[in-house]
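Thread title: Can someone regenerate the structure for this chain?

I was given the following input by a collaborator and told the matching structure tokens would be attached. They weren't. Posting the sequence so someone can regenerate them.
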Amino acid sequence: MINKLILINDKTSLSTFLKDNYEEVYDYFANQKYSILHKKTRDLQNIIAKYNRFFNQLDTNDLLILNFLNLLLEVCERYGLVSQFRLVYGTLKNKNYQVSSRTEAAALFFIDIKILEDYSNRLENIIKKLVYADEFEEDNSEKPTITLINYYLQVVKHFWEFNSEGVYNIKKTIQEYIFNAQPYSFLKSTLLAEILNYSIDNYDIFSKKVQTLLDEHFDLKVSPIYQDYKHPVFLIETGTDYAKALSKIEANFEEIRKLSFDFSLRDDNSEATFYSLKRGVAILENEQQLCRYMVGYSAMHKAKLLDALCKIDDNILTKVNHVVDWGCGQGMGSMVFCDYLKNKNLDFQNNKFTLVEPSTVALSRASLHLRKFTNLAEIITINKDLDSTNKEDFIIDKSVDTTFHIFSNILDVELFSLSHLTSLIESTFSGINIFICVSPYINELRTSRINSFMDNFEENLNFCLIASEDYNKREWLNDWTMIQRVFYIKLS
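Best answer:
Regenerated them for you:
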């Protein structure tokens, strides 16, 4: 990827390249191994210096290039490329491009720093922005942790030799923030604590030790949560108090939501449970998280999905005979789909449902929920994350001619490869494919993932856009944000 970018010499060529390869570019910079990109920092510096010649030609309509610059900006921050960060950050701000709170925090210690007091005086604001990013923007706590580590590296690099006492005071202040932080805060990172305990008597040794630790830590692969997955393995929750209680209520989304609320009252530590959800993107592990997620997020999921469903003609919905719920969680997308069709007296009982979800407990509950709505439908469970899912996981019936894909609060998440997902869909499904894609608005870069996903299919001659809506804060229901894309295509 880097070698291809180096060959680009002008704005038009870059725009064309990104249009054809944006998913691969995004995946490369967002999900590449830490150590691999670290070895490419010299090339990245050269690329930015080369592209700087046409930065002044950009305007707000060059959104694809601006999104790409934001990806480069995050890499500059991650590896401490200060001059390049300032250059790209200034370009984006001049174009009124919205960057993340975490990037704003990095700007506070990369830009306009003259004396040590500039670092210490800005620390509180930096922490506030990182806490906000951790709670409301990032998919995990790793990026805010890296940003605070980079802050500390900059302090040590520039002032240890001249004002060791001042540097120690800043270190002590960071440790006080850690001590006073909530248990679920990114500040409780063991990685951060370990680095703060390193000797800083020699910056070169300290810096190399930190970078080695980061390379090793973030290159570790997460062990898969499934073992020897095979099609016959069907997951469904049985015999639990929740399953017994569910059997006594109506097949209705709101009734199920109320049931989860009742069960959430059993949790004596509900606040910590809520924050463990990590803005709804954590892989759920227990009953408390399942119920707290439903309480905290189900109303929003339902509203966004209903808004999208009502824009699809009933004649199209009646032809659906396969529903794929991607990153299904507890099956909220499928439940809302069933509820909607039931209320319009449209049949869904003979549909096939495929539920894809990495959390075993969530997937088991999704099957339980869905079975409440239909005793006849075939339900397939795929207990994998999206990157691990492949064509062989899906049982495709030749009689299926219309597939309904649900992406509810998943496409904006950076923890999987978009290019793998689109290739999987194109190689696995045929006939009419309808897509509902709804996510929160976080920033332009995250929205670009959703747009790129749709754009990949837009080149299909049979593509039809049904709805495209963008709502920021205070522009939609209950001050929720929403990015909505609804479309259908015919795949061969």
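Residues 241-491 form a domain with the Rossmann fold fold (CATH 3.40.50.150).
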